[in-house]
Amino acid sequence: MGSSDYTFETFFNVVNGECRSAFKFKYGTDPSTEKKLWDWPVATTNDVEEAVQSANDAFKVWSSTPIEERVEKISQWKESYKGYCENFTTLLMAECGKTRALAAGEANEVISLFDHHLQLRIPEERIEDDHRIITTRHVPVGVVAAICPWNFPVVLSMGKILAAVLSGCCIIVKPSPFTPYSALKLVELAQLFFPPGVIQVLGGEDFLGPALVSHPNIHKISFTGSSATGKKIMQSAAGTMKRVTLELGGNDPAIVFPNVDIENTASEVVQGCFVFSGQVCVAIKRVYVHEDIYQPFLDAMVKAASMIQVGEATNKSTTMGPMQNEMQRQRVQELIADTEVNGYTFALPPRSFESNSGYFLSPAIVDNPPENSRIVVEEQFGPIIPVLKWSNEADVISRANNTKSGLGASIWNSDATHAEQVGRQIQSGSVFINSWAKTTPRGMLSGHKESGIGGEWGSTGILHYCNVQVMHDFK
Which residues form the Aldehyde dehydrogenase domain (predicted)? Predict the structure, then answer.
């Protein structure tokens, strides 16, 4: 593939360095308009087998390639990607329904991911005593299958790809059928720099994920998605003792103390609730506000949320686009209906839209529903949020932790030392002090409890793509 052939109008699977079409195609839908997007090719069982064979063949050489050569390939890919950042921004707006600001943020975050991984090296420990030298090395695990979600298709695919290839693994990417385009293009671009079989991509139907997970010649699964699917992957992967990294769902609490600046904090909390229509794994899902400021804080949240402009992603005035897909919109509508049926109070009711097209929902805020209500217990993954009242610190920490999830949390307190003391008691992989979830490649993203196993990013994320080998050299 020459660089002149690289366009954003045709899409391919990539197997053994070859851009492949198919006999069968599907197409995505623009969430803002419900109009058909481009055709994308559906991988076959034969494509899977050839990709796995190619990856295993490539691994024999790539795993022993000096890390500085791997770094150089990644650096070349980065420089090429930078020239297409605007193309990826436009693509994300179309396939995800993201506003320009959000789409550009994701496209540019990929450059931060490149920069972060280019600085990493794989550690080696050497201990010597009177009788032996003990060397601990991290060796690449083998062929990885990356099963990626629809909400951040560029960033979450690249986080897996870069960690895999830097550590010496080969990787097969399976993008979500809701948002396949950006991952297909990322991997197509990579073929200019990496040997055939090192980085491949397969878009496909329902059989594809299970086929990769159960394949005996794939050695690790990296999955980002729901906890329910993560459990199935873990169960299937056990049959071949695959390594797994699972970044799963969350029900992230925000705890607001009475000493905060109400207007500014409420505005920030609202952003943490409704960014990308709440379709973020570490978005705020429950807001606990101290009783002393509960009503003014709730009022300030309603005021801030009412200013959000919902509309088509391409409209310059839009600050919140549509839901990404109809399935997720219906899921949120079920929670809205449950809230109404049970007679809970909407501080900010959802509004209807005149347009007959687009998967639109407006922000909605529920005023102090019961702790055991569906809107509190379940992950919404959409623009509806419960705000709850608290008075006792130990009690609110207990309530925040009373979930099977443990992905993220935020503590809002003008006393940063006190905030950190509270944060240490929260059972989650990430805790944000006086901020909503602003992740960075420099910090590992991982979950406690049913929010996942292992982790990605950070200084040690690449080690999750390695096995440990200890060599004992006797004198």
Answer: 29-470
Q: How far apart are CA 352 and CA 366, in angstroms?
A: 17
Distance in angstroms (rounded) separating the CA atoms of residues 168 and 464: 12
Burial of 316 (0-12, 13-18, 19+ CB in 10 A): exposed
Whether 291 is a known active-site residue: answer no
What single-letter amino acid sits at 450? E
Helix (H, G, I), strand (E, B), or coil: what is residue 225? coil
Residue-wise pLDDT for 234-246, tens only, equals 999 999 999 999 9
Q: At what angle do helices 85-96 and 100-118 cross, to 10 degrees?
A: 130
- Please tell me the total number of residues recorded for the chain in this structure: 475
Domains by residue range for the chain, with CATH: 3-248+451-474 (3.40.605.10), 252-440 (3.40.309.10)
| Residue pointed to by tokens 């943020």 | 105
| pLDDT tens track for 173-200 | 999 999 999 999 999 999 999 999 999 9
The whole-model pTM stands at 0.96
Judge whether residue 1 has pLDDT over 90: no
pLDDT in tens, 63-94: 999 999 999 999 999 999 999 999 999 999 99
What secondary structure does DSSP assign to 280-331, as a single string? Answer: -TTSEEEEEEEGGGHHHHHHHHHHHHHT--B--TT-TT-SB---S-HHHHHH
Do the strands 252-256 and 408-412 form a parallel or antiparallel pair, or are they unpaired? parallel
φ/ψ region of 34 (left if φ > 0, alpha if ψ in -120 to 50, else beta) reads left
Alpha carbon of 171 to those of 70, 143, 164, 211, 314: distances in Å? 14, 6, 7, 15, 34
DSSP string, 429-443: SEEEESS-----TTS
Instruction: Extract the tokens encoding 248.
Output: 């799963």
What was the pLDDT predicted at 159?
A: 97
How far, in Å, CA of 236 to CA of 234, rounded?
A: 6
pLDDT score of 43: 97
Q: Is the pLDDT of residue 386 over 60?
A: yes
Chain centroid to CA 190: 21
Pairing of β 243-247 and β 220-224: parallel
Which listed residue (247, 268, 379, 456) is catalytic?
A: 247
